[in-house]
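I'll show an entry:

:::
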Amino acid sequence: MRTVTVSAPYRIDLAGGWSDTSPMSEECGGVVLNVAVEIIGRPRLIARASPDLDWFGGYQDLKTAVRRVAKFSGDVQFESPFPEGTGLGISSILAACGVAACWKLQGREWTNAELAEAAAQVEREMGTDGGWQDQWGAIVPGAKLLTGRTASDVIAHPVACEGLAERLILADTGNSRLAADILHRVVGFYRDKATYPIWKGVFHGLQEGARDASEFTIAADWSELGRCLIETERLSETFTGACSEDEFAFLRNTCHGWKYCGAGGGGFMIALAHDVDGAKAALREHGLTVYNWRVADEGLRVEE
């Protein structure tokens, strides 16, 4: 029996998250700086498609949505070493992997934009509408500044990030929080005439923060990049109600800045350190699990 396996890296977002979220990004355009990463000691995210239908296994809602969007009658299975709610873009990335596996088995070719839009359609089918940065963050390897209004018109601008992996710490807080839990609040800010001016200011700040963070990453200006992380978190707090600035205040002596990954308020966080060993020790002392990682030089990998 022929089986197609598609694997992908994770993504960590440095700045601009939430600016890619529908329907706001359609009006103003999203700008996000993120990085495709391999987590050392953990497998990539995986989807497998085969012609025979088998409803055993997890991710049943995701399986149903992927089969519908891909117009596929066979089976799709998913594997992730982490649960949803980590802030690493897992659900959207698995959606992209699943659609790609189905399409490959059907003999269909695709562009990055077509696959990213299909992953967004899967999310909509599941009622978890979100942004487009997750799937683009994994489809395109390395660090990049993503700009666009919808998943289908995003442009990925490569960003040199030499030295970043040696200084940016990735850690799991152990607490999950799903983006869908926060999305209605963000959209509410956008649609409420009373809070729209607040939303517009925050949105503009997120866009500019992503552009600044891109420049500081290229220049290896870690102090300024750390400031961008903190400012991004402060802006996001308007939407999420959760800010890591005070929660991780114990990092002030060892780090330039820090923030939650993804929607915020739980899951993984990143810390840009000037004292890497000291920061890792402090994180572990406070109960976080630290993971080694590297910049992914390969996006989606298709195997038969």
